[in-house]
Design goal:
Elements (H helix, E strand, L loop, with lengths): L1 H33 L6 E4 L5 E4 L6 E3 L2 H9 L6 E3 L8 H6 L17 H6 L4 E5 L3 H9 L4 E4 L4 H14 L3 H22 L9 E6 L2 E6 L4 H8 L3 E2 L8 E3 L2 H7 L3 E4 L8 H6 L7 H4 L3 E3 L14 H12 L9 H13 L20
Parallel strand pairs: 3-4, 3-5, 5-6, 7-9, 7-11, 11-12
Antiparallel strand pairs: 1-2, 7-8, 8-10
Amino acid sequence: MKKYNKFIVLMLAIVLCFSLMCTGCSNNTETSASGDEPEKITVVDGLGREITLEKTPERILTSYGIATQMVFTLGAQDRLVGIDSPSLTNKFLISLDPDIPNMATPGSPAEFNVEEGIALNPDIILVPGRNQQLVETLEEKGLNVFGVVAEDLDQLKDTVQQLGKALGQEEQAEEYVKYYDNVIKEVEEKTASLSDGDKPTVYLAGPMGLLSTCSQDMYQNDLITLAGGKNAAGELTGGWVDISPEQLIEWNPDVIVIVQYTTNITPEDVLTDSRYQGINAVKNKQVFWFPSNLSPWDYPSPEAAVGILWTAQKLQPDLFPDLDMIDEADNYFETFYGKTFTELGGSLTSREYVEKS
């Protein structure tokens, strides 16, 4: 009888252990099937702020044209729920997505409607980093805010890289960074041995016309310097700065480039203006539009990578004799946008001045 009782106790113990093991297996299976809690995403924006996201953003809102272009370069445009108002008429973006003009917009970088932005229920908002007040206001509303800053060569690369991580597009971001780094390396190596006398003085006419130019704290200054030139306004600070006609004459630039988004000025206007006939750039007809007709390549946006190459060839043609800019642009655009520059209607020369016969 005792042996029988011991046998029953032993069997009950075995059944209990087996039951507990199965319960553990069942729990493990459920955890595996449902998946672990997704890892949080931590990135650093252009302002040096650490941002933690609970998940990969599914709804992206931008209030800044450069940020909007970055989203397209990273291949995340299908998640945009709203964009900055100037991008609604951006020829380049429309060539990639004809529905761009119909997108919701909370306004421009300077006039952002916070309530309309919140109503779009974004998982992340991309804003110009220089607008600190907007960043703080949106954060106070409990929103994830990424400040985009790209005013020098490294900032552009770092911002694209961190934004790629934030949006779950790390592979595309790394592909862009690889291209960008290779461009900078190629240009640096070819211009490294230039003496100061070999570097032409370059004047970049900005958004407000000929007498608006870029100072040393802008991306365009770094672009000119990297490409083997000297920024005529390189000793000035303050972003876009206004100068006098006398100052431009005194600087006597060897090359003048005019941004696509300028107002009331063309290369022909400069070349025919009696005040500037003594300037080297005018005498030698070295006055050009900064390409391209689709989107500005001098901007601190991803297309600056091809803008660097164009500038280097313009300033130092002997160092880049075999560079075919149309071919380079075609390859770049096909890699990051799925269509070549030519297919999108891109042109380098359509706005360059051609002397009348």
